[in-house]
Amino acid sequence: VKSLIKSQIHEQIKFSWRRNGKFFNIVKDPRVTMRKRSGTLEIGFRSGGRPEDYEGEYQCFASNDHGVALSNKILLRVSKAPLWPKEVLEPVVVTEGSPLVLPCNPPPGLPPPFTFWMNSAMTPIPQDKRVSMGLNGDLYFSNVIAQDAYTDYSCNARFLFTHTIQQKNPFTLKVQTKEPYNDTSYNATDPYGGRKVAESTPTFLSPSGSESSKMVLRDEQLLLECIAAGLPTPAIKWFKKGGDLPAQKVKLENFNKTLKIVSVSEEDAGVYVCMANNHLGSIRHSIFVQVKAAPYWLDKPTDLVLAPDENGRLVCRANGNPKPNIQWLINGQPIDSSPPNMNREVLGDTIIFRSVQMGSSAVYQCNASNQHGYLLANAFVSVLDMPPRMLGPKNQLIKVIENNRTFLDCPFFGSPLPELRWFKNGQGSGLDGGQYRVYINGTLEIKRARAEDEGTYTCVANSILGKAENQVRLEVKEPTRIVRAPEHQSAIRGSTVRFDCKVKSDPSLPVTVAWTKDDKPLNHGWRLKKDDESLTIPNVNEGDEGAYTCTVKSEIDQDSASARLTIITPLNHLKYRPDPPMDLDLSDPAARSVRLTWIPGNDHRSPITEFLVQFEEDRWEPGRWRNLSTYPGDLNSVILQLAPFVNYQFRVIAINSVGQSQPSRPSPRYKTTGAAPDAIPRGLRGWGSKKDNMEITWEPLLDLERNGANLHYCVWWRRKDTGEEWSNVTTVGSKHIVQNTETYVPYEIKIQAINNVGSGPESNVVIGYSGEDEPTDAPTDLRVSKVDINKTYIHWKPVDPNSVRGEFKEYRLYYWRESSLVPGLVVSKEKKTKGFYSTMAEPSGILSDLVPYSKYKMFMVVANSRFEGPRSNTVEFTTKEGVPDAPRFFRINRRSFDTIYLEWDKPLEPNGILIGYRLKYQIGENNCLSSHINGSREGREQLATFLPNATDFTLRLPDRSTRYKFYLSALTQVGAGEVYAEESPHFTNEVELTDASVASPFTPTPPPLATLPPTAIAPTTISTSTSTTPTTTTSTTTTTPSTTTTTATEATTTTTTPVVVITKRTDQNVLGTYSLTHHGPDNTHCFHSSLLSLAPPCVCVLCMSPAYIDQVDIATQGWFIGLMCAIALIILILLIVCFIKRSRGGKYPVRDKKDLPLDPVDQNNQDGSFDYHSDEDNKPLQGSQTSLDGNVKESDDSLVDYGEGGDGQFNEDGSFIGQYTVKKDKDETEGNESSEATSPVNAIYSLA
């Protein structure tokens, strides 16, 4: 038994227990222990003892220097599961149609058992409105039928705490019938099989009489029961006098025989009436329900902190039925028996403290009790003085969603109680009122957080003992919401479905989007595709059907949306389209509207999402159906907005997620009356097609905008700002030309549509212009400044605006590339233009995208909308030299086992004088050198430079599995140009090296190379060889027949010595190329190439594992052919020896049958054959090692001298032995063992 007591005061606490109101001495009872640092009491019975001896009422007391606190009382009882009393039950005899009660009377247990009825076969007794179990466990029969005797009835009691079930002896029924009973005549509607059984009016089996009472405690469960007898079985109904049954709280169970209210309150008291009736009559029973209440808190006392000389109060208010009695205690003792205190006054349920003093701290208990229960509360009254202090975390960051109610906490403490005020950003007066509210516990409420509420809030607690403050930083974020939610869909099996889930959130808040299907996490797998805004399900099937929910979460909020997916099989998907609407009807006619009503067709389990209304008119486009409007799928009657002077008929199409229905049948025609035009012609403008006219154009009205017959247009125009009268013309076209105008003058224009009914509204006045003419002046003083590689600044003097003679568009610059400064380079002289719009007095601009190192020419004109003016002066300028473009092409032209050929062409635009090419290359992932030295999978970057006339390069490979990355760029004096990158391709039979296949780490140091002249190289040839030499090697490299010689000396202790093989190739403008091969001590091969160029010296080091050097067909190698021949010869010799031994063993089986047992291999085989062999077969041969055990026994008739251990004497015929070996003396044998192998098998064993 464990009762956990947690103390709120963490000083030296002492715990004690009382049992049945008396001190419980724990020390004297070995079965009872108390946990350290807690008041938990443990009672163990593993070593014996009766739990019944410890039953009783327990209460814990916790005390320290400040007072004593009490726990609630704990009632300890031992659970019991008593056996059913032994009894002999006689068969129950009952007349058919009579009521019956089978008593259960379970043995009393703690807690009470759960009862149920079963038969001897452990099958539950079926219950219905005729047969049911009551609240007391008895089984009630409203009337008995003959079938009830076919089984027995046993009451079972299940004790939940001990997990045991007790079974009562079964009842046996004997049903007496007045007429013979036939099983075949039984049916559910006539359980008596057509026999006449006396009917009876209803009577109550439980409860008895016409009235009863029931008392229930507040918040407990109320169960009222009415079980009636009668034939036919009565029906039960419930009522409450003076009102209706509370539908939200009342639940009827057990075929309406039980009324249950889960949590009872005072208003549930009253008179409940149950009525039982059948066609013979009815009967009523009234139950008077009283609701009592154990004490419950109205105002529970709480801890109180007072400063010296302060006043305070403790309040303890409780309610109950009957009214509870309030008793005060101090430190566990009745307050009446405590010493009097002038600073304390008890007034019923309140204690008033006045001018408290230090040292008067104590724990007060309030006990509220009546006969139904009690309440106990501890309240610690602490008298102390303490300056203000903040209890919450410092400088807390709070993130909230915009427009949400927000609370900023500032827990504090102090005695006396400090005054708390809030400030924002350290300025202004305290925050309270309006948008803000400060609670007594220090919390600041912001009723609706907005972006301007962001900032730092400071809470300050002040008292006479000091001040404390804390800060809270508030950030207001935009809400996370789904702006495009997934929609319900019906999809054909095998098609692709996409659910949208577009999210909008605060940019500073990371969000996660998760999908669920039927409220379970969705396993995306390989088939489902999810991105930030959607979920795509390809090839849908029936298993994909369900409800899909998109949930988006941030750290402070979330949003979700759901949609359902319905799968349709391809064979019947057409039937899921809705049927066409029916019975279209027109009503409520008006000049420009009419009401259309229809009856929707069958939606075939896919809801109609919208209706499309179409119309057809017979005046302008008869027979063509056009869309009028769409309406939501839940409407079937709408008002259609129509145009005048149209003869309409309508039809409706229903739409669901599968598709559209067929159109409905057309409605009757409805003709609207004519009206004046409502629309104003659009696109009105005036412009000059010639220098002395102005064309006024507009878009004609649509057919449905005519509103009547004989449509025409009235057009007005006049010179702007002259005050002259309007000129006008009426026309049926969409254009009018005003002749004989001045050049480029503004006009005011307006238009109006007119039909037979009347005139439409006038348009707004627009400004048009007459025609333009060629400008008369040219820009002057065109010049350039700050000419750069690809741009320059241009300047000119503007023209007089009046000379433009039209709408000024731009200063148009014509420029072209006259030539390139690169000799022999042909360029295109195509003219290009660039416009500059400027009205400044000294205009200028930037001309960019020029080609470097080129000569340009340019001139400028002024342009209006139609014409260009005369040319300005022509200017020449030259751009500076730049970096070249990328080479025209760069490719690996061909590749053999050990060579890569690179080829390129000059750049299309050198942008200067080419001085060469730069090639950077890097050994790729299969380079053992990089993995040995650097630990990476890529080699060190190498550099080569070439003269400008070089267009190819040959690179010898250390092995064919090595791959390179190449980066080529052209050079000018300015620098390197755009890089062209390529990578060497795989061979078809090439195998990529892996880390596991790389040889041991690279250790040898490459020999020093001579200092070489700087220039580019031609192809290099590298060769390898291996030899065994003394430990010191001297290598000499000759650069030219008559120039520098470099000597490299290397000392080593290995048997594999570096060998240098030197090759030289000279080309035009190339000083030389040198290569050496170094065979490292780990049998790796490293190639060092020194390249001679005009650039600084460059050294390339290539290294590889021997397994990948010169990989050729292994079948053509001499060592492989020799190995195969040796293996074949050995196999042939072994076959000959086996044949000889088999023949010898078959003819002469020699065995000492007395000394040696029959060997297992000599046993008869399954097929009846025997395997004969001699013991000599297992003896060591002459010249070989002895047997492992050394204890092989030699028989007298064996070939002793054929082995090592004999005594040299024969007991057999010499001719018999002679075919295997020759007799040798012991001395000879010891002196020349290797010569004793006189047979092929001896030779083989000697080799082994």
Automatic annotation (TrEMBL):
Basic and acidic residues biased stretches: 1170-1179
Signal peptide: none
Intracellular or extracellular location(s): Cell membrane; Cell projection, Growth cone
Segments of this protein annotated with the region Disordered: 660-686, 1019-1052, 1151-1248
GO cellular component assignments: cell surface; growth cone; plasma membrane
Record-linked Gene3D superfamilies: Immunoglobulins (2.60.40.10)
One GO term (biological process): axon guidance
Domain Ig-like: from-to ranges: 1-71, 85-172, 202-290, 295-382, 393-475, 479-566
Segments forming domain Fibronectin type-III: 580-675, 680-773, 778-882, 886-991
Transmembrane stretches, start-end: 1119-1140
Keyword Transmembrane: yes
Superkingdom, natural source: Eukaryota
Family annotation (CDD domains): FN3
GO molecular function, one term: cell-cell adhesion mediator activity
Keywords of the record: Cell adhesion, Cell membrane, Cell projection, Disulfide bond, Glycoprotein, Immunoglobulin domain, Membrane, Repeat, Signal, Transmembrane, Transmembrane helix
UniProt function note: Neural cell adhesion molecule involved in the dynamics of cell adhesion and in the generation of transmembrane signals at tyrosine kinase receptors. During brain development, critical in multiple processes, including neuronal migration, axonal growth and fasciculation, and synaptogenesis. In the mature brain, plays a role in the dynamics of neuronal structure and function, including synaptic plasticity.
Assembly description: Interacts with SHTN1; the interaction occurs in axonal growth cones. Interacts with isoform 2 of BSG.
Family the UniProt entry places it in: Belongs to the immunoglobulin superfamily. L1/neurofascin/NgCAM family.
Name of the protein: Neural cell adhesion molecule L1
Native organism: Lates calcarifer (Barramundi)
Lineage, broadest ranks: Eukaryota, Metazoa, Chordata, Craniata, Vertebrata
